[in-house]
Amino acid sequence: MRIGIGYDIHKLTENRDLILGGVKIPFELGLLGHSDADVLVHSIIDAILGSVAMRDIGYHFPDTNEKYKNANSLKLLEKTCKMIKEKGYKIINIDTNIICQKPKLSGYIEEMRKNISKTTNLELNQISIKAKTNENQDSTGQGHSITAQAVVLVDFI
Ligand code: ZN
User: Fold this and answer.
1) Residue 69: is it exposed, middle or buried by C-beta count within 10 angstroms (0-12/13-18/19+)?
2) How many whole angstroms from 21 Cα to the centroid of ligand 1?
3) Which of 53, 25, 14, 19 is nearest to 37 (CA)?
4) What is the pLDDT of residues 68-116, one digit of tens each?
5) Domain boundaries in the chain?
6) How close is the Cα of 9 to the center of ligand 1, in Å?
7) Residue 157 CA to ligand 1 centre (angstroms)
8) Would you identify the CATH topology of the domain 2-156?
9) Does the pTM exceed 0.85?
10) How far is the CA of 8 from the centre of ligand 1 (A)?
């Protein structure tokens, strides 16, 4: 078995959709980024890649590539799963934190889990998403950004 860790942060800005775990969440601000800036999915991708020592998301899906402009991050997650499968690995479980002061995410967590479950071909009980605030501290706590963390356990198929 092997374990990987992922971390990501994106800035909240006007005129962008807020997409977390593939769910479009109604809010006056959205995350800035080259792709759809789905910070949760990006942290999961990095954790998966990290678990098999296959570099990071920027290496495989560079933000200088026009192909990935406004890309659906779930598609990148799907590709990442394929890549580790080809290396002979399967995911055992994914655990994550989304750190977000606003909006409240609890009503969207189940839909996010379903999206990730479908994309990764895992059962719902293999995917955990925990939403936290940052108690008004730092840029995330002051509502200027959203942060995500993920750990992924993998094993040989
Ligand atoms: Zn990102």
Assistant:
1) exposed
2) 12
3) 19
4) 888 999 999 999 999 999 999 999 999 999 999 999 999 999 999 999 9
5) 2-156
6) 6
7) 28
8) 60s Ribosomal Protein L30; Chain: A; (3.30.1330)
9) yes
10) 5
